[in-house]
Design a protein that fits this description.
With 198 residues, the chain is mainly β. Helix content is 3%, strand content 54%. The strands form four sheets. Strands 4, 8, 9, 10, 11, 12, 13 and 14 form an eight-stranded antiparallel sheet that branches.
Length: 198
């Protein structure tokens, strides 16, 4: 009948499964429409990783000591690298939000144990026993770092913490050792933030 508003059943609800994906379901004219909701998160990229050597601007190689009392990583000579069983893996993640740089996480294989590098709220680094998670919810994570080219035309990188904006992985002198640490970036170029991946 003309002028009469046509009413149609409509409903919406959220479905969740064992997977982290969330869908919005809308019913219209008896048809269900599924829409994936974009929630902030990271997922591993094809579950791939690269075994890498990490060097500072002086070409010292990073070695990790997760079982020591200090639970630290130290840049040492290449000779010391050959005497250690430390293996570092770089894991690439895909982000639901556009970011500047590639989202990555680091794990360390020491003997039969695997350790995951993370930054803490008090701006320190530590290594916890465990593997790289396949899914990380949220838009900040203690595990995720943004890999960016250090400068234009340079093959080295910088790695910014996603948890602590403006803080980068850096080589820092401490008690006669060159340790891997977090450092606040300043406006000027700081070679301590220059990290080479090989």
């Amino acid at each position: 009948m003309q002028g009469e508003a046509k009413t149609q059943p409509a409903s919406s609800y959220t479905l969740t499964a064992n997977k982290p994906d969330v869908f919005l379901v809308q019913e219209e004219d008896g048809v269900l429409y599924f829409h994936e909701l974009q929630v902030d998160s990271w997922k591993t990229y094809n579950n791939q990783f690269l075994k890498v050597l990490i060097e500072n601007s002086l070409n010292d190689t990073l070695l990790v000591y997760p079982e020591s009392e200090e639970n630290c990583a130290v840049f040492r000579s290449l000779q010391a690298r050959h005497e250690d069983d430390c293996s570092i893996k770089l894991h690439e993640y895909r982000d639901t939000s556009p970011r500047e740089g590639i989202s990555v996480a680091f794990t360390v294989q020491k003997g039969r144990k695997s350790y995951l590098m993370n930054c803490t709220s008090d701006r320190t680094l530590e290594f916890q026993e465990g593997n790289a998670p396949s899914y990380i919810p949220g838009d900040r994570s203690e595990y995720i770092f943004y890999q960016k080219f250090f400068s234009e035309g340079d093959s080295a990188f910088s790695f910014e913490s996603s948890l602590l904006a403006g803080y980068f992985l850096a080589s820092k002198e401490e008690n006669g050792l060159k340790k891997l640490a977090l450092k606040k970036s300043q406006d000027q170029v700081d070679d301590n933030l220059r990290i080479q991946i090989k």
